[in-house]
Structures are given as C-alpha cells and as structure tokens.
Design brief:
CATH architecture: 3-Layer(aba) Sandwich
Number of strands: 12
Structural class: alpha/beta
Distance between the termini: 27 Å
CATH superfamily: NagB/RpiA/CoA transferase-like
Helix content: 25-40%
Number of helices: 5
Strand order of the largest sheet: 6-3-2-1-7-10-11-12
Radius of gyration: 15 Å
CATH class: Alpha Beta
Shape: globular
Number of domains: 1
Length: 189
C-alpha cells in the first residue's frame, strides 16, 4: 500500500470515528484542549495569530479565536487564493466571515493580508496527528505549503481520539511544534 492509500484509509477511519463521537464529549474535549493551549507561553506571548474557522467535526478553533480577539491580539484566518494556496487575512470579528472555499468560513477578499513572517503563532488544523507532531489534513496541501515558508510557532489543538501511532507522510509534510489534546501536550519538531 502506498502513502496516498494509507492516508485515504486513515482519513476514512477518523472521519467515521468523529461522526460516531458524542457531540457533548467532543465539546468538552475541545474546551479542555483550548484551555491548555491558552496557558502556553507561545500563545501568551503571541501578538499576531493565524488560526482557522472550524468545519464539520474539526476541533472547535472558535474557542481560541474568541479568546484571541478578547485579549486584544490580532487574529488572521486563511483565505483560499488558488489551488493549494492560502493567505492569512486579518479579521476583527468572527461575524464578518463568509462561506468560502469548500464551504469553510473565511475572511472577505478586501481584508488585510498578514505575511507569514509577521505571524507569531499558527494554530494548525488536522484530521490526525502523531506524537512527533506530524499531521494529516484533508489532502489539499494548503497548510504544508504555508508552513514551508512560516518561521513562527505552530501549535495543533486536537483530541486524543485523533492521535495515531504514526501519520503516513510524504517528504513535504510539515510537523507542528506542539500538539495539545484534552489530556496532554505532545512535543513535535
């Protein structure tokens, strides 16, 4: 089995596990992981943060997004600009987001760009993570491309349910610095 087939099987397995998970449990796990992430020095010291708008049964990053805005930090969210390409765009409120690529909420095209080198912390989404911080997303490669040019801290909030022994990976796959779950913090790169 090649890496792409391994990834497809793992995606299928995890999507099924998330569909079957109790929404109240997912919400409690997300709250616990968000609280742990908010205590990290990488978060406390960050002034400009690139996060994401949650989609489907992804970790509820809006818990973090609201805290970022409430603490007076600058919040940027991805705007898809082309095939496999995204930009960080500043937002002042989650209410200004609109449905974008793949039905995921995103900033409008008139929003200001935040360059990768201007961002202190990237909050990384993913479907699966391993203890080394490697992730598997939805397969578009948006974050791997972005992370290749991103110099700041990168932290992935997730649930224990989504931690696997080893994420199948290609040479271009990027790891998170830390992975934060409802139970523990795992060191990545």
């Amino acid at each position: 089995m090649n890496i792409q087939e391994e990834k497809a099987l793992l995606r299928q397995r995890l999507k099924q596990a998330l569909r079957e998970a109790d929404p109240a449990e997912l919400a409690a796990w997300d709250q616990a992981a968000a609280e742990a992430l908010l205590r990290l020095p990488q978060f406390r010291e960050a002034k400009r943060i690139l996060s994401y708008a949650p989609f489907g049964r992804e970790f509820n990053a809006d818990l973090l997004n609201r805290a970022i805005l409430a603490q007076g930090k600058q919040l940027a969210l991805p705007l898809v600009t082309g095939d496999g390409q995204m930009e960080a765009r500043l937002v002042g409120s989650l209410e200004e987001l609109q449905p974008g690529a793949y039905g995921i909420r995103e900033p409008g095209p008139e929003s200001s760009i935040l360059l990768p080198e201007e961002i202190d912390l990237l909050i990384l989404p993913g479907l699966a993570f391993d203890e080394a911080g490697y992730r598997m997303g939805r397969g578009g490669g948006y974050y791997d491309r972005y992370l290749a040019k991103f110099p700041g801290h990168c932290i992935a909030p997730t649930r224990e349910l989504q931690i696997v022994p080893a994420v199948p990976r290609d040479p271009w796959d990027q790891a998170a610095e830390l992975v934060v779950t409802e139970r523990r913090i795992l060191g990545g790169k």
